[in-house]
Amino acid sequence: MVAFEGDALVERLGDQSSVWAEVTAWDPPSSLSLSWHPGSDGSRSTDITVTFEGLDDGTLVRLVHSGWERTEAPAAAAAEYAQGWSGVLAGFAASLTATPADADVDTGRWFALVHKPGPALPAGESIFAHPSFSEHFAFLERLRERGLLVAAGPISEERGEGMAIVRALPEHDDVDVDQLARTDDASVAGGFLEVEVRPWSVRLVG
Fold this sequence. Notes:
Structural class: alpha+beta
Strand content: 35-45%
Low-confidence stretches: 101-105
Order of helices and strands: EEEEEEHEHEEHHE
Number of strands: 10
């Protein structure tokens, strides 16, 4: 789970935590600025400013990411984030414009990806502490960037079980979620996790 805790944006997994960013400026409801450094100690942080401008038919959200000169490979980092932020903002927009399921619209295809430890995981070892779990997290990040991920997290940390909820919208018609869950997730492909893909007939959304 990633959420704001005071002025910090914190990722938590069980008793493990990592600070992704700190709030450097906050002017609700107009703007938010962050010192951004997911996966690092902040010595090479970049700068993010998000602004919100009210329009007649909605809100214009603008995200400016700068400070690439402080990274090890500025051009590569900027290119990677340019692609990633497009997916994140698309998912954000889709969540805000979602229409209740009782309306005459296509709410997409929903799936529950249920994960449990696989045969390649050494006996008695937690999947959450195993190096392969980073591959699973990277897979979830790719789903999120594409606007497919609704939520993800552990069901039972003791048994190493977790679940991810995926929604494929009409623009994702070419996505085979079952194949994606089994082949794009390196932790599943390597046998460290097993996945059961359950189609979910969603009748009501908030």
